Amino acid sequence: MTLGVYKLDLISTPVGLGVVCDSTIPKDAFVVEYVGEVLLGVDTQKRVDRRYQVELKTKAIWDGLTDVFIDADRCGNESRFVNHACRLNCGVFELEWTNTARLGIFAKEDIPPLRELTMCYRKANLSLFTCVCGHENCISKRP
């Protein structure tokens, strides 16, 4: 795993803002942490826009075990603008740092400079938008 510091920039895309890097990102490199508000499962349903919610595998003890989410809708960093694509070049992995569960976005392949960073949104979020990536096996083309 490569731990580098990558300068990420926002770009305009046909679906809104996206994220690129001005240098090559090697395969398996840590790109950026996905940050936002930490929410318990019961609180996620109260949000109008749930597209930026990512569920952690880690559970919280709050009146029993409960799901925990990171929601980048109201606050976050450039990671919230990494768009979905069916042919993705980044993956999201949960890791623990200083006894806290976190989400890291890692390169799944060598990513050349100025190539848009993409990932697969969690399955529950796929019902909240229409994919327009254009890939031949795009989920939006499936019956």
From TrEMBL:
<dbReference type="GO" id="GO:0005694">
    <property type="term" value="C:chromosome"/>
</dbReference>
<keyword id="KW-0808">Transferase</keyword>
<keyword id="KW-0949">S-adenosyl-L-methionine</keyword>
<dbReference type="Pfam" id="PF00856">
    <property type="entry name" value="SET"/>
</dbReference>
<keyword id="KW-0539">Nucleus</keyword>
<feature type="domain" description="SET">
    <location>
        <begin position="6"/>
        <end position="122"/>
    </location>
</feature>
<dbReference type="InterPro" id="IPR046341">
    <property type="entry name" value="SET_dom_sf"/>
</dbReference>
<protein>
    <recommendedName>
        <fullName>SET domain-containing protein</fullName>
    </recommendedName>
</protein>
<dbReference type="GO" id="GO:0005634">
    <property type="term" value="C:nucleus"/>
</dbReference>
<dbReference type="InterPro" id="IPR050777">
    <property type="entry name" value="SET2_Histone-Lys_MeTrsfase"/>
</dbReference>
<keyword id="KW-0489">Methyltransferase</keyword>
<keyword id="KW-0158">Chromosome</keyword>
<dbReference type="GO" id="GO:0032259">
    <property type="term" value="P:methylation"/>
</dbReference>
<dbReference type="InterPro" id="IPR001214">
    <property type="entry name" value="SET_dom"/>
</dbReference>
<dbReference type="GO" id="GO:0008168">
    <property type="term" value="F:methyltransferase activity"/>
</dbReference>
